[in-house]
Amino acid sequence: MIPYRTIEETDDSIETLYEIQKSKFITHLRHVDSEEDARAFIQSMKKKYFDARHNCSAYVLGESADKQKSNDDGEPGGTAGNPILEVIRKNDLTNVVVVVTRYFGGIKLGAGGLIRAYSHAAVLGIEAATVLAMTPFIQLNEVVSYDLLATVEHWMRQKEIRSLEADYAENVILHLLIEPANLEAVKAALTDLTAGRAALTTGDESLIAIPADS
């Protein structure tokens, strides 16, 4: 599995406002999983801000960020859509669409000014979002007796081991989430901690969303 960074899914889009030289730049962005979703979001912003001079956009899709598109929507070529796209790239994000709506204030910004304005507007939008690192984890299932449970749970807290909800029956089944590179070390540590009394089985690998550091 390929790790990647994206933004948190929300019911509503994230909105920020940036003003310069009487022009207003309104940024909206959201998590999307397909080109169809990205295009639909762009169209919804164009419909909402139908009276704006420009609704410029960019999106990046796929775990490998291999689907990328930008649109200047009437601004001089390369001054709007591509700067937005570059901000998405610099933040190593994918499965995200960004739309920057511009209400012209009567003062021309020039090509350089437009590039800086659209870039800054996109940066503000991404800074307002919750960035997630989609990280590969392997589920490690551990069957332990109740007399060992407190010891194992204490160790898990110390090591900051993520886990799913446990199953409680005759014994306890803990479902630990371990990064692949740490799997063997964790198995060895648990075997030592429980003096070999824990039954360990390896489950499926999946991508888990965790808050990104930056």
From TrEMBL:
InterPro entries: EFG_III/V, Impact, Impact_N, Impact_N_sf, Impact_YigZ-like, Ribosomal_Su5_D2-typ_SF, UPF0029_Impact_C, UPF0029_Impact_CS. Residues 21-122 form the Impact N-terminal domain. SUPFAM superfamilies: EF-G C-terminal domain-like, Ribosomal protein S5 domain 2-like. GO terms for cellular component: cytoplasm. Residues 144-197 form the UPF0029 domain. It holds the Pfam family Impact_N. GO terms for biological process: regulation of translational initiation. It comes from the Bacteria. Belongs to the IMPACT family. This is YigZ family protein.
